[in-house]
Write a structure and sequence with these properties.
The chain is mainly α. Helix content is 96%, strand content 0%. The chain has one helix and no strands.
Length: 74
């Protein structure tokens, strides 16, 4: 009987350890999901902030190429 109780105690201990590990992993996943969402939001903000600069570059670049052609030839 003591052997069975020892086995049960051992299994319970293993279960508790796995349950604790699972909960820790679940919390880590939730934290990573929050971090990912925050990074995605930052990325959207950066793209929105950089868009006017990209628009300016799109206007300036052809002019610079035209000047280069005029100054240095084809």
């Amino acid at each position: 009987m003591a052997e069975i109780e020892t086995m049960i105690a051992s299994l319970d201990q293993q279960y508790q350890a796995k349950k604790t590990n699972f909960e820790q992993n679940r919390r880590e996943v939730e934290d990573l999901q929050k971090q990912t969402a925050a990074l995605e939001a930052q990325g959207r903000l950066l793209r929105a902030a950089l868009q006017p600069l990209q628009d300016q570059l799109d206007v300036i670049k052809p002019r610079l190429q035209e000047m280069q052609t005029l100054l240095f030839g084809g």
